[in-house]
## 1
Amino acid sequence: MKIEHPYLMFLGDAPDELAAKTAIGIKQWRPDWCKGQLRLENCNADLGLPDMTIAQAREAGVKTLVLGVANRGGIIGPVWMETLLEAIDAGMDIANGLHTKLSTIPELAEAAAAKGVSLFDVRHFDGKLPVGNGEKRSGKRVLAVGTDCSVGKMYTALAIEAEMKKRGIKSTFRATGQTGIFIAGEGISVDAVISDFISGAVETIAPANDADHWDVVEGQGSLFHASYAGVSMGLLHGSQADAIVVCHEPTRSHMRGLPGYSLPDLKTTMEVNLMHARLTNPDCVVAGFAINTKALDDAAATKLMADISAEFGLPCVDPVRNGVAPIVDKLQEI
Amino acid sequence: MKIEHPYLMFLGDAPDELAAKTAIGIKQWRPDWCKGQLRLENCNADLGLPDMTIAQAREAGVKTLVLGVANRGGIIGPVWMETLLEAIDAGMDIANGLHTKLSTIPELAEAAAAKGVSLFDVRHFDGKLPVGNGEKRSGKRVLAVGTDCSVGKMYTALAIEAEMKKRGIKSTFRATGQTGIFIAGEGISVDAVISDFISGAVETIAPANDADHWDVVEGQGSLFHASYAGVSMGLLHGSQADAIVVCHEPTRSHMRGLPGYSLPDLKTTMEVNLMHARLTNPDCVVAGFAINTKALDDAAATKLMADISAEFGLPCVDPVRNGVAPIVDKLQEI
């Protein structure tokens, strides 16, 4: 799966900005890839990009229409279909972040086949994968892990990749979830693969590389999440991480989606992740902590990060407030 | 998925006994369900059951033709097709343990639909599953875990169920792999579900039950297996085990399929499984050890089991040599 850019961002009839969260993430991390946006009637989201028709986008060189928006009820209605068919007719690929698979809508599948364009359903994975083999491979890899889901693992990984590129370090962000895949232009939604192949999927998307190249692997879930820990475990083994970065949101009262389940502490999270990571890479270390301090004021955030850094003797940053330079410093020592 | 018995065991043209391993396991644990066997030319396996044609099996009340045999090259050839179509025509369901899905062979799918019979592809799972919710449910559950794959987890679980039934304890074996599914008549191949739903699949197959009922859950893989640990992790969380039994094969030089990966020791296996099990059931304990001592002589086996029992102060048995009574004694204390 290789999604070609530039992109035209389809916002449909998004009821609010939140529905366009994926699209916002793509524009934030790959602004040069996003040529314009296409909004239908009643769309309440705005990426601040030029509004374009399909024809205008084609003219501007757009290769892919990106559905980076949650829709009402998970159904692709007639009002959307018209635009999607127009895009196919104009020769564009469509990359879709919805649960609904475009490839199972006969009208779209037939039109795409006739026109020779691709429909990418990035939340799904139907390809063939190998079982993980655990064999040591060249190149370096860092994985973002977390105390919980949605604590900033993707943001942290992208910030590390950006900082590495700024320093001239060879690096590639490796996407394991839908927003990440749009941002990378490729990847596999690891939570969508058959469970026998979780670590094999990660070995596939973060393969052997130059000895001085870093793969920055997007994490998923948490080893302490009762719903998704299996995914996190396979990711840890498959990424064969030389280093992990522990991500956390300090104000959360319970694990996401699991009232009654409290979050693990940072020490436990670090130790248990390290233990399992060392199965496939005995030299794995912790490169630091990435804390999402959005809910704290400056003083509280600064104090919390200083306390964590002192407790563990490791860098602790909020990637949004501070960037990730101290973590990349640490990675450069490896 | 509910596979009706009695079964006719299809051995096809199995080149040797090993190819019929699944069928042998079914006959061992559910002899009353196995009415006969059907062998084609050049079949070198023999379950010691009466040889039957499809017509004879139908006459004997057989409901399902069971493909519990590995075939040559994973392809269902014309010589098999004839028998399968005959079974469908006689109104039998077919339950298939091969990787190849019967339901994707148009000739079989059409014949089955026309006749109103079911094709069960037990290595696959296409149904809808919930994400695991981790909510405490009633009833008791014991899970077989292991240092590695193929160390006797299914056998141990079935032996525990049998011993419990002998004692009049309410219990149900819960199958998570293909042979187990034939033996239980239902279940889900957990390694075949989408990875987001591993723990949800286990919550589904081992649901809330009477407070004094035991679900004996078949384990898969190992938390220390670089290919499959994600599956084992989800199983542990989803089963919400009150007790685990640690299974081991003491002469294995490396993890199955992974040369260069040594087996974890029993203490580590026990502790790490307990730690993760306690996420969804804080009261989980170890009920004992089940050692596959097939490769040892009597004296060596007896000494090894005595040593392990003394080291941990817990029952240690070889289910084949000794049965699992001491483990069930321990479970009755819970």
## 2
Amino acid sequence: METEMPSIFSAKRTSFVRTSVIREILKLTVENSDILSFAGGLPNPNLLPKDVLHTVMESVVKENISTAFQYGDSSGYLPLRTGIANRLTDVSWSTPEAITITHGSQQGLDILGKMFMDSDTNVLLEDPVYLGALQAFSPYNPNFFSVPIEPDGPNLYWLEEIVSQNKIHVFYVNPSYQNPSTYTWSLEKRKQIAKILDEKEIILIEDEAYMYLDFSGIVYPSVSSFRKRSDLTFVLGSFSKILSPGFRLGWTVVPEVYRSLFTAIKQGNDLNSNQFSQVVVSKLLNVLDWKGHLHSIQKFYSDKKETLVSLLKENLPEARFSIPEGGMFLWVEYPQVSSKEFMDRCLASGVAMVPGSEFSPASRSSSYFRMNFSFLENEDLELGVKRITKVYRDINT
Amino acid sequence: METEMPSIFSAKRTSFVRTSVIREILKLTVENSDILSFAGGLPNPNLLPKDVLHTVMESVVKENISTAFQYGDSSGYLPLRTGIANRLTDVSWSTPEAITITHGSQQGLDILGKMFMDSDTNVLLEDPVYLGALQAFSPYNPNFFSVPIEPDGPNLYWLEEIVSQNKIHVFYVNPSYQNPSTYTWSLEKRKQIAKILDEKEIILIEDEAYMYLDFSGIVYPSVSSFRKRSDLTFVLGSFSKILSPGFRLGWTVVPEVYRSLFTAIKQGNDLNSNQFSQVVVSKLLNVLDWKGHLHSIQKFYSDKKETLVSLLKENLPEARFSIPEGGMFLWVEYPQVSSKEFMDRCLASGVAMVPGSEFSPASRSSSYFRMNFSFLENEDLELGVKRITKVYRDINT
């Protein structure tokens, strides 16, 4: 008795909903374990110290049952918000009250889309841009503009052009080890752009999900920390990469004037964030040797990056990329192949990457692919690069 | 440097965002533990068997680290979806593939609002209606219609009138132990209304969050199970009341034609549901004596209901209510008081209830209050009723 989807029933915004090739590939690789995947943004779950985790779980079940297994404050569990305010943000106004806990930083993006974006809202993105932001914002169908980014941040000439010729309402940025380009804004550009945003009264949505993933342990000051207009500044963070995506927790630092609205939207979305995970993570923040833990993650990612870089240089010197300062990706240009054909043949040969077109608001074709290096074991990184190399050579002979 | 919220920045839909008095009261009672709260919909966290929970946690940390602490399928963790399909839904088409895991059934409501509701979409609600549905749907600003409900379900005369005079797209219902009225649709009305919805091609959003909370252990067949048009039928369920709200997990049974769209919206919202909680709950489903567990919950709620009913009859015979068949609320009419004054003076006297106006799409004033009986200990139920009685008598003398 199934019928074709009756289009009269669906809301207009659904025609702007974007699906994600990454999530489709993730599903594919779950179903077929022979596919080696460079596609996900998957941290390595073994970086979580099991013994600490076990002790924390035990104490939650023993001591926190009435908090951890109940509904909670829509803004989040206060001890967790306090922990974040004390350790994981660098803007002066990030008090515990300013921090709202969300289901991943992704939910922060959805709430901000719902809050700010109508069909006549001008939203500036980086090009390329984090795919999840496109997914969060697209259903609200704003006017997207995009500014090309370079290894040290947005092209300032283009940025000035765009903001002087258009009333831009919101600028969404991912300034540290950007997903997918891996580019990191220089200190100078952070300052300059903060100034431009203040002058033009532009809302900044700064996604700092990778802030603590620098290979040398550097922590760049956020763009937001240079802004005077803190009332127009939202900073998003996430536990997915520094602790585990399994807790599905992130946060947004919300300016005071927008707090009640942000919380009301959060309530409508899902009442409150997972209390059990919030209690566990707040305890983990207290008992983990946090500095040592971050150092071990940074070291792990740095080593994996080295491995993939060497493998590509050795096997496929035609592949072009900048060496990132942090994060979990390489952004690799494979010249002289049709990206569609390359992608399809790689998948058929048991290896997955994300095509660059996914990260373009206009889905523009691109010779770039995003490669994750944090998830596969080293032997699989090697086998994967060999499979890619074979496909590349087959096409180019 | 804070300014007034610049209205040019906020999307138009934000003027329709509804806040919840319940969540505000919840916050108040967290801050001030002297307030006795009948306001929340809070299950009792002690119904969760600690020893089983502890064993499950231990096994998750030992055996499931690579699944539980990673990203996952946007539709949900397959073993959990299978467990739900096998045990917790009664519609014939609820295969594991049909079930999408959400952050509470609340998130299912938000996704369905995003999916179906434009400003010209006619949405029929029950009157009174579950407040969370108003919060989820309101930002999409549909045209709300409402049909009065009676102790055995919607008034059929009004329902026929509304659907024959208007093209209703979506009907949102909560047919078992409704929140807030506690009314439960009769079998006869379930069948008749399923037939009307089929004839008129109306999408049904059936919220069965309380399905397993009957005081005598009866499980009413869902309205959906009587529908022929399964392609226009969504059933929502939740673990919040039968296990714990701390896991923040619910589900939606999604018709095949809408599955990819539903999943794409879920991705945009928050990528996937909390994997850690999904793994824990799927294990709990397997190891708990499920029948015994449900029985003990039903017994607990039934006893608490008896307690509150007796206390009200004894102390304040003016209060009027029907005796519910299940759930966690009484829907109490306090005649001859201004609800605003009564509410304010109750709060000032250290006792909280939710005013009926919260459950009306038009925020219409009402002499009803929703009282939860599952959370307070018996001595506090008694003390609370005494405080309410005193306020009532003070006003009425």
## 3
Amino acid sequence: MRLAELSERSGVSTATIKYYLREGLVPPGRQVNATTAEYDDGHLRRLRLVRALIQVGRVPVAKAREVLGHVDDESLGRTIRLGAALWALPQGPEPDEEDPAVPAARAEVDRLLALLDWDAAREVGALSPVHRSLVVAVATLNGLGYGWDAERLAPYAELMHAAARLDLDSLEAQASEAERVETAVAAAVLFEPVLRALHRLAQEEESARRYGIE
Amino acid sequence: MRLAELSERSGVSTATIKYYLREGLVPPGRQVNATTAEYDDGHLRRLRLVRALIQVGRVPVAKAREVLGHVDDESLGRTIRLGAALWALPQGPEPDEEDPAVPAARAEVDRLLALLDWDAAREVGALSPVHRSLVVAVATLNGLGYGWDAERLAPYAELMHAAARLDLDSLEAQASEAERVETAVAAAVLFEPVLRALHRLAQEEESARRYGIE
């Protein structure tokens, strides 16, 4: 398809597509003559992902380029390729090592991983930005005096593990490795608000069931 | 306890406590003479919650005052009091009725609630800001071409329902109704980052188990 059709089908203006092409976020089309390039479904998919990252996830352009570089890196194994793409997404604040709640939270997180037999997560440990952001979140909760320890976190972690299994099952239904990594990145950006809203709606439902509506 | 001790035990400066008192976010102490007031554990708890809302949740002062007004309103039944406090928290963007993805998403959400027998959530429907933010999240996902329907959302909704049961079980362990509502509000602000980090860490763990680490 030509640029005009790519624009129409993706809902992204031709000016914005040209900007994404210049920034290297979308690979160039196949040049058919000096002024015309031809685009395919791969470009359409990539535009969708770029919009998810930049317009919905508010990921800065340079970060998006880094994430997409990992998505496209066929030299990596699947776990590393997925991890690299997801780790490149903006994460929360880093642990403040001056804060006494941080080492205590890290000890609880490590105890949690042992309790759950999450051996890969234990091995990767604080190398993973996700591990570090869990430490920050637990330190914030406990620094304010809400006592969350490994035992209290464990049933929630089990539920999130069940969610992760669903995530990977749906990844595996994708045709190509590139689509699998793209789907994972889109899900990380777009699906989190769905999960948060489902959780809050479930709280309302359960509260009404237990205590009535008045 | 006096103001100095309240400051020391809460980790909030006396200047900030005075500001919260002036703004009506923390109830006044019991005046023992013209210049001295006495504070108790209720004040300490309230300060913790105000910090969670304002410093961690970045809730504006006027919004925080509204949330706390519902927390303190003993005339309301438990579901309404919880709901009013949680609904007053900042929510995501409202559905854009001009966007054709919105009515389609709303139809899927309603079909999801029917599928799950979430009758209270169906009854409250779009009156709930949480319902509306779920519609927005699903519309965004599907507007970008990721096809999520009620059947695909349902197993995630069941997991979030299990999480909501854990949430309410721990609420019920609190001594007073005021503490229960306070705990619910703090959890909404402070526990969501924990849940998000647990989900991402579970994805890493499950990916490493399925595909290895290299």
## 4
Amino acid sequence: MVNSLMQRVNFVTLCALCFLISLLVSTVEARVRHYRWEVNYEYKSPDCFKKLTMTINGKSPGPTILAQQGDTIVVEVKNSLPTENTAIHWHGIRQIGTPWSDGAEGVSQCPILPGDTFIYKFVVDKAGTFLYHAHYGMQREAGLFGSILVAVPDGESEPFIYDHEHNILLNDWYHKSTLDQAEGLSSIPFVFVGEPQSLLINGRGKFNCSSSSISITEEVCNTSNPQCSPYILSVTPRKTYRLRISSLTSLSALSFQIEGHNLTVVEADGHYVEPFVVENLYVYSGETYSVLLTASQDPSRNYWISTNVVARKPSTPLGLAILNYSPNSPKKMPPTIPPPGPVWNDTASALAQSLAIKARHGFIRTPPPKADRVIVLLNTQNKVDGYTRWSLNNVSLALPLTPYLVALKYKLPHAFDQTPTPENYDSADYDIYSVPKNVNATSSSGIYRLDFNSTVDVILQNANTLTPNNSESHPWHLHGHNFWVIGFGDGKFDIENDPKKYNLVNPIMKNTVPLYPYGWTAIRFQADNPGVWIFHCHIETHFYMGMAVVFEEGVDMVGDLPSSVMGCGQTKAFHGP
Amino acid sequence: MVNSLMQRVNFVTLCALCFLISLLVSTVEARVRHYRWEVNYEYKSPDCFKKLTMTINGKSPGPTILAQQGDTIVVEVKNSLPTENTAIHWHGIRQIGTPWSDGAEGVSQCPILPGDTFIYKFVVDKAGTFLYHAHYGMQREAGLFGSILVAVPDGESEPFIYDHEHNILLNDWYHKSTLDQAEGLSSIPFVFVGEPQSLLINGRGKFNCSSSSISITEEVCNTSNPQCSPYILSVTPRKTYRLRISSLTSLSALSFQIEGHNLTVVEADGHYVEPFVVENLYVYSGETYSVLLTASQDPSRNYWISTNVVARKPSTPLGLAILNYSPNSPKKMPPTIPPPGPVWNDTASALAQSLAIKARHGFIRTPPPKADRVIVLLNTQNKVDGYTRWSLNNVSLALPLTPYLVALKYKLPHAFDQTPTPENYDSADYDIYSVPKNVNATSSSGIYRLDFNSTVDVILQNANTLTPNNSESHPWHLHGHNFWVIGFGDGKFDIENDPKKYNLVNPIMKNTVPLYPYGWTAIRFQADNPGVWIFHCHIETHFYMGMAVVFEEGVDMVGDLPSSVMGCGQTKAFHGP
């Protein structure tokens, strides 16, 4: 009896049920949710191609953290990698009062050594859709990531209605090892990682094993491996679903679409969005969205779900999943061709989505009317000592050996570069449409120190890369804060006139925002969270090549740091009994 | 003029010349020799197959350290690996007064983090042939190793005569990454690394690119790559050469031979050997020898140098080099078939060589007549929680998070297992010729604490592995000491009668000694070097699977430890200005 019941209830539904039950039994008091994770390598075939993948408790993506606003999350991370360190960042969680739990290696902590266990403890103070991922080397790309889904408190409800919810995490996938890729990036001549082999939807893709130029054995690539069967999103006709859609791609900007169905955007990075309808959702690495989907189409068939690369000329096949209208078999193939998504270089449409995202009425937090400080960051690709790097105002970040948080809190001398970081670039003389006249940049561990509680504007200014007629998209992610997205523009930012066009009425707050080719993006935030926070391009290779700056604010107000964050740089010592 | 001279003097000769000149200009005072090394990955094709290789200053094997007895060696090791730690052990150097420079991660130091620089400083107090290599994970196998050649002091000479010398470092080589291999070893079911693809002589081998079961592109495997041209040993007819021959294989025991030439063994592990002549030299991983070779054969041709796998059924082709009689072209192929070496399972011949190695007359250091303590170590393959491990008396070593040296010196509590380690096994009831009745062992970080200045005998007792009718060879290496090799035997060690047959008259001192299949090996050493010292099987995979014990002696006499060895386990703290 139990068995037959089990057969009818699919696993995903069961999980959703468990989540709902767990919320029902919750008391008014916030709970502590305890996780024990072991990080290791395992052979996985997420796109049918067998590869050593970085896993949590044997899984990639790792376990989903399900919590309720106000809960305390405790994650004991045991590093079981043979020789590699690690660190895990809780993407979108502000870490108020716990800046040492931010998981940014070199910023908030020393790396977690093989064999060691690090305990992250933090409060999820806001309902919404968040992420976690490795923040060390390029380990995120190796598979170390997952989702954090935070429900509203008891007695509260969200300002939109749905029957069920599903989580959809997107990423891109390479067959080369991360080590191989990192080696190429830090070589002269520079060897780029290239375009990914597959796009994965909830960790599942399908590589065409016979498409490779060299022969691959079935042991290495097997399209009938159940690990690479497509993700099935099962729906009941006429019901409405909340889909939480996020991306942790290494490189690719994505569009996500469901054949024959529109999507209503209602949440972005944990903030309610004034609803708007899209045919396809653009998602940049580090962004999270919730959309509503109503199963309103012909229920006699299934539909394709697809994701495709945008913003770079794609050479990666579509990522595919199945929207399964029950009671159809999930194995019933849609009778159609999967939606190819928008053309890759339709920047106008992507920008239109960015502009459409406004804070939802009734949930608007108005930004301060003006900034105390404006930092303009010119995004360029450069050379530092012959190596290809990414720079802001011609400075490429090199993380120090001693984490900034420890160095600043305990005033350790010489722990990082004390040279002031540039507030701007020589805007009048710089042609953003050309390859830099002087390609050389410098590398530095210098930071931006912000006055506590001040209001800061950052203008991200895009430009041409080292390749003529090329400017790339960059999703910028800020740790420790949500920022208001107050403006986007084409071309060079005009500090006199553009600020007049800022949206200060109902701007969305986000933690990750795209910067479009040859354009600018303006954000505003309050430096109100004591700690040290990195702000970086969320493209794994760009961050690895120095595309980041670091902000400090109110570090004197940070409590005593746990010794667990130490052990590197100037923080090695024996610790008497 | 200079150019034409240069053309005639080959590079190896030039290096030897530099070495000689450097010795000539030395004063009576010992010198400090300073090295700056950067550890990184690079693509290398040592056997024509391109692979990410762990290098020092771009080289694998790394730079040869050339020094004179009494010199102080300072090596600044910068870890430029993207996410992996490292540590380097100075194999055969006793580290008297500098136990923190032994480079054994988990024993004498915390690992060196990416970006960090660790300074090793130690005295080479004895002339001879030594080695260095990574002592972390299985990084030695990835290519991180090299030679240390220590000359006699000014005014002293060696008790044998030669015209020139050459260094020959042997190793085996895998095409799979070390990570791949480590993953297999720590999986259930166990996946063995298998036999190596190539044997390298001075970092050069030649893989048959077309022998692979899957097609390999020329970019991946190219037999005309100069990196895999054979090593050329150039000699002048009638001259005598000292060949320093060592092995840092991961797995393989080797035989080394030169077609048509006998070799006279004169040094083993830095100790003078009463000369004896061999047709082939057996070399186990971690052993070093010097042999004399006289270029006494037909000078009109070149000869093959070969190395082959012994002690395991080989599936690896011969490693080949060329003995080049000048003025023949080094490219002139010998007109013969390379010597295949002895059959792999001729244990009797290998044992005969071990028995033939005695201390040279005039250089005998007589061992104490009896031991204060006898530790018998049964070598077995076991299961620990389902994982395949190697054990001593049913205990498999698990290194602690806090290095023993720090934990013991500063009496840190709970840093490692305090359970006493077993002195013996149930010899009467144990059948060494069968698979263990109970395959289960335990894993422990417990150690052997030795009375300072006491004399310790260790009897290594071999047995059957988990495979019926199989017992493997194990080269055992002791850090911080030279030991006397006092006996070898077949079968089960007889504690009543076998000690009566010990050679206490002229035993050789070594730091690495083989244990033969189903046999025993007895060593004696004095616990006279304050510190903590690991004693382990030098097969990389065996050590990785726990085949080691740890000795402590006189740790209270060890000076203050540098903070550079700390940063892991209980040694994380900020270190005020």
